[in-house]
Write a structure and sequence with these properties.
Blueprint: H1 3-15, H2 33-45, E1 49-50, E2 54-59, E3 62-65, E4 72-73, H3 75-85
Antiparallel strand pairs: 1-4, 2-3
Length: 86
């Protein structure tokens, strides 16, 4: 996984944590929908984010997730961001 994209996604989630509703979009990171979903699924599997909803489908070997994409940071995700700031 491209670690700068991972950091950008985690930063965007963290910046908007106070908003009642905030959804990520692939265009925010110049990614295709499939690339974006693959990264989000990987980040959730690795424990950096939570809250993705499985759409129950697999496309091109990638588990699809339901929109809107409104993940939340986990403690591990927050620690990762803090480590990147050092």
């Amino acid at each position: 996984m491209n670690y700068s994209v991972k950091t950008l996604i985690l930063s965007k989630i963290h910046e908007n944590r106070e908003m009642e509703y905030f959804a990520l979009k692939p265009e925010m990171f110049n990614l295709s929908m499939l690339e974006f979903e693959k990264i989000l699924v990987s980040m959730q599997n690795d424990g950096y984010i939570m809250g993705l909803i499985d759409a129950g489908a697999i496309e091109d070997g990638v588990r699809r997730i339901a929109q809107p994409y409104c993940p939340k940071l986990t403690q591990r995700g927050l620690r990762y961001l803090r480590d990147q700031e050092k």
